[in-house]
């Protein structure tokens, strides 16, 4: 895949980047080089390679997913201007 000058200008407009006409050919070359590198990565054989989150093996620290506080909704909504069944009531802002 290659990028033409029209596409470079469109990308710049979408990214809200001011690009002069003199910069377009240089950016076109850079974007084409990036895309060529990405295409090279697609040729790498990764069959049997496990996904990893780090280059060094490590176990993720996990904690028990449990409620450690709560059980008193009446105290939580006590200062709210409007509540119903222990829920906050807010004014409708979207029709």
TrEMBL record:
Keywords noted in UniProt: ATP-binding, Ligase, Nucleotide-binding, Protein biosynthesis, Transferase
User: Domain of life here?
Assistant: Bacteria
Say what the protein does: Allows the formation of correctly charged Asn-tRNA(Asn) or Gln-tRNA(Gln) through the transamidation of misacylated Asp-tRNA(Asn) or Glu-tRNA(Gln) in organisms which lack either or both of asparaginyl-tRNA or glutaminyl-tRNA synthetases. The reaction takes place in the presence of glutamine and ATP through an activated phospho-Asp-tRNA(Asn) or phospho-Glu-tRNA(Gln).
> What is the name of the protein in this document?
Aspartyl/glutamyl-tRNA(Asn/Gln) amidotransferase subunit C
Q: What is its EC number?
A: 6.3.5.-
Q: Which reaction does it catalyse?
A: L-aspartyl-tRNA(Asn) + L-glutamine + ATP + H2O = L-asparaginyl-tRNA(Asn) + L-glutamate + ADP + phosphate + 2 H(+); L-glutamyl-tRNA(Gln) + L-glutamine + ATP + H2O = L-glutaminyl-tRNA(Gln) + L-glutamate + ADP + phosphate + H(+)
One GO biological process from the UniProt record?
Answer: glutaminyl-tRNAGln biosynthesis via transamidation
Species, as recorded: Salinarimonas soli
InterPro entries the record matches: Asp/Glu-ADT_sf_sub_c, GatC
Enumerate the GO terms in the molecular function aspect: asparaginyl-tRNA synthase (glutamine-hydrolyzing) activity; ATP binding; glutaminyl-tRNA synthase (glutamine-hydrolyzing) activity; transferase activity
Top-level taxonomy: Bacteria, Pseudomonadati, Pseudomonadota, Alphaproteobacteria, Hyphomicrobiales
Tell me the subunit arrangement: Heterotrimer of A, B and C subunits.
